[in-house]
Amino acid sequence: MQPASRTRSKVVTLLQWTPPNCRYDPERVPPFTIWLNLLFSAALFTVANLYYNQPVLDKIAEDFNVSFEKASTVASLMQAGYAIGLFFICPIGDWLRPRPLILVMSSQALSMICGITTVTPQLAIPIIGGQVPPNRRASAVQIGVSGILLGSLLGRLLSGVSANYGHWRTIYWVALGLQYLLLALLYSLMPDYPSRAPEGKTYFHMLYSTVRMTFTEPLLLQVCIQSYCVSAVFSAFWTTLTFHLASPPYEYNSLQIGLFGLIGIIAIVLGPFYGRIFMDKFVPWFSAFVGETFALVGVIISTFTGNLTVAGPIIEAIAIDMGTQTSQTANRVAAFGIDSTAMNRVNSAFVVCGFLGQMSGAAIGNKLYADGGWTWVGGATIGLMGLALVVLFLRGPWEKGWVGWHGGWAIRAKVDES
């Protein structure tokens, strides 16, 4: 056996071994405590890998002597790689035990600095959704989504700070150390939950069923379209914001642009409390409506004031971060109710659509910004958020079919006894 093969074999064996405190015993199922919820939320920080480039796109353009529009393809390619990983890797979370899969993905992200293997967050979210009772699912998933937002926020912040006081490449060495730390925590503390899917299924069946469910489950298709639209708005705003703040009349440096990301701390802090106090008590449809409407109002305000005062982009940042978090959490919780044995596949379809939206939003946003500036980008994002609301209203909160409002208008959550 070649040395490289022996090394790989040892790594695989090490990742497959489970510490005694993490071994699963069906007679004594480990409780899903708040600390375990926070551990998975920390793992979601891996998503920061996708956002380190955003505050330094102007530095990348300068370093490689290319235009802003060319440099922005870095963000688009990262989102494309992530979407590929989501479709081809995440569905097998229903087929394999999640622990070794998450550990492999976390370790692979150390050597492959690309979006394809940065799928640990989307393997952890279905575990959270599956281990808590339905009446607590929204708040538990909200804690996890806050971890994703924290990753994107700190990714932008750390990237901006490192570029301002050093070289823009420094942040990727920092990311390497953080990835090692997260891998060690997961290896030591993550329970070895069993697979949820029926036995006898193959990898290709998992991929096929992911696509099939997207087009045969009305609720899943509805939330996937909303995820695409909302994510496109989010990405178009944050990608073009870098160029907008670096240009007249603002001309901010990388540190100032990175600090702008701290606005998102509002959504991160309030999200779990909002989930417990509000989202657990109402149907996901209503929470999605509140989130998307809030985001739309912020986009409209910023579109018409963003060239005059920095207050416009600040308002939009708050509205988009809070609105997107609320909408995406609500729609994900709704989708998890489709099939308890297919949560990873449902989540994969949902997030693939979301990151296709982010990829499209980054590409379209930068093209529109280059051609018409901030107002053109705002017009497109208003249209996309409006489309998300139209799709939401095509099906009522209790509708089982493709279109309609059968089951009533009630927005209070109730236990499904079926």
TrEMBL record:
Q: Which UniProt keywords apply?
A: Membrane, Transmembrane, Transmembrane helix
Q: How does it sit in the membrane?
A: Multi-pass membrane protein
Query: Is Ribosomal protein one of the keywords?
Result: no
Where mainly located? Answer: membrane
**Stretches that traverse the bilayer:** 32-52, 72-90, 102-128, 140-158, 170-190, 228-245, 257-275, 282-304, 374-394
A Pfam entry, by short name: MFS_1
Protein name listed in UniProt: Membrane protein
